[in-house]
Fold this sequence. Notes:
seven-stranded mixed sheet; alpha/beta; 7 strands
Amino acid sequence: MKRLPIVPTILVVLAAAAMVGLGIWQLQRRTEKLALLNALTANRSKPPIALPIPPIGDDLLFRHASALCLKPVSFATEGAGSAGYRIIAQCKTGAEGPGFAVQIGTTRDVDYKPNWTGGPVSGMLGHAPSHSPLIAGLFGKTVPGPLLLIADKPAPGLAANAMPSIDSIPNNHLAYAVQWFVFAGLALLIYGLALRRRARKD
């Protein structure tokens, strides 16, 4: 019986080891994600906070908040799935304030022109729309988007917002880990069958 081919064997073993490493990494990510989800779930029962409080990070996601919009300086229209379009206002809070973004409601009219003039708003903090290219996510280069206040009462002329849900945060790390382990096993199995076939020919 011939000896094992050195180079192909090394390459297959290294590839399988890399896949196992990726699977273990996904299991570690799953543990971190579960801890994050538990913390974010607890945010719903915490007292409301007042905006603006720079910087606003993901640790405040799903937290109830309130703010005073002295004046909306701009409006943006973003897709909202079955709800149509959501209207997002960038608000001024003072001469030197950092301002904040608030989703004031939804509409099915893509050409809707808001006439909201600001005032007190309250609601829940959610993710602002992300415009990161899809391919960036394949290489882990996406950065979580900023948060915005999703108003619990819509501005006049708009429909109510859907409040952000913890279910919107994906937690597929276990499935990814299983896939990597399966890929590693298949690579070794296929290579073993190839070696067996080679030995029979000899």
